[in-house]
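Cross-check.
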Amino acid sequence: MKKKKAFTVVELVFVILILSLILPLIFGVYTKMHTFKVEIDIKQQLIQQGYDIVERINVLMEDYTIDYEEYFNRKMVGCSLWGGQWDSFTWTTSSSGHCDLFTHYGNANSIKNILGDRDREHHYYYCSSSAISYSPMVLSLSDCINPSIRSPYYQSFGQYAKLFYDVKDDTDTDLSLVGDSDDEDMGEGPIAIADATGVQELYLISQDGTSRLFLRRKLLEQLDINGWWIWTGESLYAIQMLRLRWFDAGRLHSFDETDSTRNPGLYDGQIDTWACDYSQGFVGKGSGIGTAYAGYKLPQDVDDCWVDLYQWSVSTDAWNITLYPHEDPSLSRKKEEIQINPYIQLFFLNRIYLPSRKEKLNSSLFFNEYKITLQTLFNTKNFYTR
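Predicted model, tokenized:
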């Protein structure tokens, strides 16, 4: 029988040498292929989420338009502790990326605590060219739009349109200041949107006026690549949404109070209460709107009821909104330059949030490469119902 010939030492050394050269190449190619696949997945995810938010806003714009009244309220209340009410308005934001004062969405519209009994009431005021004394409060035409004179405490939702009227005197002596024969539609009211470029929050109102929808950018967390909390780590900014529903529930925002002396204006046709839209999944922590609508709660603070618009794997590092015109066209009929379809131009910069990825990629390359800039224009079609 012929004996098999074994490998010689030289042959084994030669094979080992070849494998030592080939295996690192194979492993390197495999690693690069895996990294390349991860990079493609990340870029696709980034692009998809960016266009998803554009598409979602585009769908919303079919039913909503610019909420001039809330922009006016925001201008009067301010955005930071030192802006707005007593100074020229700027979109000064805190590190959270949004305005850090609460307008109460008309449910008192002040920077006071909404849970206090007095602060749960909102107030009404009207503009007049006559020197008259009347309750609710009457201001001169110039004082009506002057934030250094008029506190936002007197402004409530549903009254914004009255800023475009000169109610003058109570000529028919029926104790109803508004609706007299001498009321004059001035057709040119206060500018609602201050600093209309670089707007940091998007305020929308439904075409039928029964629902409000707000969008903002907020800082959620700051972590390093390993997911550890450090102040100088990666920053995650999310786009958040809030939906509010209207009620005619009186100034105390409750259907339970039927005593007109305690809850004036109940069932008077005035939209006086804006609560978190429970039917759409926006759950609040404040007081409910009576027993029949206990799930519809007043926003308790500036962060109550907001929900994230998309998952945490993407950070919106920057966004800016441009709005035009700056006044409600339906209430500024005398100004020709205002009579156009209102539009919203939206710009935002999205980046993959590094701590959300399990793959350990090069952080500097990650930060510089995995970004996407999107810009789009929305025409609100000018469907106004005032």
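Residues 109-120, 363-367 have pLDDT under 50 and may be disordered. The CA atoms of residues 76 and 244 lie 20 Å apart. Passed to J.P. for a second look.
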